[in-house]
Amino acid sequence: MLRNSYFVSCLFLLLIAYLFIIGLLIQSIMFTATTVIRQVRTTVPLGLRITSARSKHFLANVPLKKRGADNVSSDELKGKMILLYFSAGWCRSCKMFTPKLKKFYEELDEEKRKDIDVVWISRDKEAPDQLEYYEKAMPAWYYIPFGDQNIQGFVEKYGVKVIPALKLVNDNGEVLDDRVRSDVEGCSKGDASKCYDKWKKEF
């Protein structure tokens, strides 16, 4: 009887020792795995991680239209300086500024126009008014169709209280310069390239 009790006690102690060793092995494996993961993360260039996270253009999910184009994609705007232009056909100040912006844009040579585009965000009250103003007053700029919810979203995001408003933004929608309207208004004939060069440095 005593011998059996001793045998059971030994088995019990062996079982405890076995479980203890298994526990140590599991902890060791988890520690090693965590260390490897941390090393991998630190070896990935920070710029690469940021680029991957930001590769999607801020207009990727926004419907865009453009005169003469059936299908418009935000991919066409990647890597370009974007001028977000908030205006409306009913706005007298807009009617005075739009020709200046158009003249500025058309004075840029073809090579420079490859690096910059205008996206019009209309504040018109009806769809026909938006289309009429676009056809009469604007070049083949990109625009967001009337009624799209992104219009109000951009108005709020960029704090547009008064129109016309012009914002220079990058692929992420970050404002690089919100004084570009003054730059355009101050551009004399032949000065468009100077404004472009200034913005390019900020981009």
Automatic annotation (TrEMBL):
<feature type="transmembrane region" description="Helical">
    <location>
        <begin position="6"/>
        <end position="31"/>
    </location>
</feature>
<dbReference type="InterPro" id="IPR013766">
    <property type="entry name" value="Thioredoxin_domain"/>
</dbReference>
<dbReference type="Pfam" id="PF13905">
    <property type="entry name" value="Thioredoxin_8"/>
</dbReference>
<keyword id="KW-0472">Membrane</keyword>
<keyword id="KW-0812">Transmembrane</keyword>
<comment type="similarity">
    <text>Belongs to the nucleoredoxin family.</text>
</comment>
<protein>
    <recommendedName>
        <fullName>protein-disulfide reductase</fullName>
        <ecNumber>1.8.1.8</ecNumber>
    </recommendedName>
</protein>
<dbReference type="InterPro" id="IPR012336">
    <property type="entry name" value="Thioredoxin-like_fold"/>
</dbReference>
<dbReference type="InterPro" id="IPR052259">
    <property type="entry name" value="Nucleoredoxin-like"/>
</dbReference>
<keyword id="KW-0520">NAD</keyword>
<keyword id="KW-1133">Transmembrane helix</keyword>
<keyword id="KW-0677">Repeat</keyword>
<feature type="domain" description="Thioredoxin">
    <location>
        <begin position="58"/>
        <end position="203"/>
    </location>
</feature>
<dbReference type="InterPro" id="IPR036249">
    <property type="entry name" value="Thioredoxin-like_sf"/>
</dbReference>
<dbReference type="GO" id="GO:0047134">
    <property type="term" value="F:protein-disulfide reductase [NAD(P)H] activity"/>
</dbReference>
<keyword id="KW-0560">Oxidoreductase</keyword>
